[in-house]
Amino acid sequence: MFENDYKALVIGASGAIGGAFVSAFQVDSRCMHVEQVSRSQTPGFDVLDESSIHQQAEVCRASGPYEIIIDATGALTIDGVGPEKSLASLREVTLAKNFHINAVGPVMVLRHFAPLLASGPSVYAKLSARVGSISDNTKGGWYGYRAAKAALNMLLQTAAIELQRKNSQLRVVALQPGTVRSNLSQAFASSVPHLLEPAESVAGMLSALKTLTPKSGAHYVDYRGEHIQW
Fold first, then answer.
1. The CATH number of domain 6-222 is 3.40.50.720
2. Where are the chain's structural domains?
3. Which of 131, 34, 151 is nearest to 83 (CA)?
4. Rounded to whole angstroms, how far apart are CA atoms 61 and 25?
């Protein structure tokens, strides 16, 4: 799909990874337009407020349709509280907000922005995480973030099946960006052997997206193009 001219839309464009996606599209001669959405660039937009999501989708409709939409929103630390390491540290309010930010909000974004996708070959990609893989969980911990990302993955899979009934060439993708130098990962960066720069992660994810073929359901891949088990 990237061999032809296309339009791109990046949601969460002011973040480290979202901004790197915008930069990558801006230097691609095939990209005719890149639309940017974020809380800082589009006042009033909030993934926790469905009405604002709907309103922003209607604004973006004028510049579409888009062959690729990237949702780079998400949070690891909720109200100053990082990932829980034990059952005893779980708090109902924080757990619920984790689901709202990392699963409920994103699927409402998908609901309102999916109609802006172009017919034919197109991609809707959402940043997920390897810790959202149930089969890959061998260490435990990080209860809320793991569970929210696992829920997100299921929502993407379910939506993909529905959306592909109208467009069999649509790829819905859960993307694992690796551990990237950003505000989100800052508190955990010291324990990571190789911290990725945002541009490095995005270059890998875009290369992975280019190789994906249409299939029933969603793809779950990392920045190296390797498929992750759900």
1. yes
2. 6-222
3. 131
4. 19
pLDDT digits (tens, 9 = 90+) for 90-114: 999 999 999 999 999 999 999 999 9
Quick: pLDDT tens for 38-79.
Answer: 998 888 899 999 999 999 999 999 999 999 999 999 999 999
- Tokens of residue 12, six digits: 């969460």
| pTM > 0.85 | yes
